[in-house]
Amino acid sequence: MPTPDDTTAGAPDVLPGADAYGPVQRRLLVSAVRCFAANGFHGTTTRDIAGGAGLSPAALYVHFPSKELALYEIVRLGHRHAYDILVAARADGPSGPGERLAALVDAYTRFHAQWHVLARVCQYDLGALRPEHYEEVLRTRHETNEIFRVAVAAGVDDGTFDPGLDVRRVARALISLAIDLVRWYRPDGPETPEQLGAFTAQLALRLVARPGGR
Amino acid sequence: MPTPDDTTAGAPDVLPGADAYGPVQRRLLVSAVRCFAANGFHGTTTRDIAGGAGLSPAALYVHFPSKELALYEIVRLGHRHAYDILVAARADGPSGPGERLAALVDAYTRFHAQWHVLARVCQYDLGALRPEHYEEVLRTRHETNEIFRVAVAAGVDDGTFDPGLDVRRVARALISLAIDLVRWYRPDGPETPEQLGAFTAQLALRLVARPGGR
User: Fold this and answer.
1) Where in this chain does the record put each HTH tetR-type domain (chains A, B) (predicted)?
2) Alpha carbons B204 and A118: distance in angstroms, whole number
3) What confidence tier does B3 reach under pLDDT thresholds 50, 70, 90?
């Protein structure tokens, strides 16, 4: 069985907002993120998580009585953080629909590059959550996606974007462009999160542009 | 542990080109695709695969002496099939760079929707291959991606597409749009593979269009 993702083995930044946790809980969550990202939820044991944190399995149970509860904490944290970043990007003053959409796509893309290990778990291990936890996370996902739909619709409504756009499907495509990079992004690759964010924002403006007028 | 993806439990079509295998081998591979897609490579045991095919673990070993060899066969088959579909779409007579790129994106998107269970394994479990198998699959991936790069470059070179396009990154974005649907596509959703293919092809033409001229 492979060890957790070597590319992030030395990085302390697989967990945004880690200060909200005590030191032991934080070590356990960081280990769990790495184990899930490397081997999947079903391929990870509680012993793997505890061992990665330098603790005994018993210590894990004090903080997370089940492996699923550790996943739930991680997935909830990741989704909430992504949502907060979008709310901040939207509020950050860009005035027109084009600027606002570009800012959202830029921020969402950078999030997925910067936190790619965490984001991989959030996207690929979602189905392992218990139904009530899954439902809760789905609500956050819906609110997140709605931010993109509202931003696309605003530009359609005021005539900045192509009036013939299928708002829901175009928003879904923009979200795909930002999220798919967790499948292939590596921090030692040629592009920084900032470069990826700026480029994807440019693509977003191409996708929504009025025919014949940019 | 969840059972393999219920949405495909009754579907015989998780394995394209299944006729190339004998009946037992085919049952084993179909079971392996479903197990890997549902629980990941590391979360699947050889017993799961054999049991899903109604066979004993010993029967599995006759055909696939290791779990990795079953994954290798599946991932190789999936990548080869996707490549063949693109080669066929390219040869299928569309005359201009726009039509040709649209045909490629359409075909690649339909492939990922139609064979979404297999494609999920091909995308998400790739890292579990042995290095020499991984290298071989990477070569097919490179050839596949190259088809898109060549198609984008052809339209840039002859002036059909925006001359300022970053060919490599735009091709990557088109590939992302086609592949990302394995993350969220469900066969009982509102869109057919054909509808998804046609829509994504439209998006592709928007991404490459010359400013101010469509």
Assistant:
1) 22-82
2) 29
3) very low
Q: Does residue B118 contact residue B14 with C-beta atoms inside 8 Å? A: yes
Q: Are A35 and A48 in contact (CB under 8 A)?
A: yes
Considering only alpha carbons, which residue of chain A is nearest residue B38? A127
> DSSP label at A16?
T
pLDDT at B2 over 50: no
Say yes or no for a CB contact (<8 Å) between B180 and A181.
no
pLDDT at A6: 37
Q: Would you put residue B172 in left (φ > 0), alpha (ψ -120 to 50) or beta?
A: alpha
Tell me the C-alpha distance between A37 and B110, whole Å. Answer: 28
Average pLDDT over residues B196-209: 97
Contact by Cβ (8 Å): A113, A205 = no
Counting beta carbons within 10 angstroms of the beta carbon of residue A55, is it exposed (0 to 12), middle (13 to 18) or buried (19 or more)?
Answer: middle
Question: Whole-number mean pLDDT of chain B?
Answer: 91
**Taking residues B13-23, what's their average pLDDT?**
86
Q: How far apart are CA A145 and CA A123, in angstroms?
A: 14
Q: Using CB atoms within 10 Å of the CB of residue B135, give its burial: 0 to 12 exposed, 13 to 18 middle, 19+ buried.
A: exposed
CB burial class (10 A; 0-12, 13-18, 19+) of residue A94?
middle
The confidence score (pLDDT) of residue A13 equals 76
Sequence-ordered list of residues with C-beta below 8 angstroms from that of B137, at least 6 positions apart, any chain: B75, B76, B79, B126, B129
Contacts with A44 from chain B: Cβ below 8 Å: 42
Q: CB neighbours (10 Å) of residue A111? A: 25
Residues of chain A with pLDDT under 50: 1-11, 214
A46-53 LR contacts (CB < 8 Å, sep 24+):
A52/A4, A53/A24, A53/A27, A53/A28
Q: Is A103 within 8 Å of A94 (Cβ atoms)?
A: yes
| Structural domains in chain B, sorted by start | 15-66 (1.10.10.60), 68-208 (1.10.357.10)
CA distance B90 to chain A (A): 24
Dihedral of alpha carbons B24, B54, B119, B126, sign: negative
Taking contacts as CB-CB distances below 8 angstroms, the residues of chain A near B176 are 176-177, 180-181
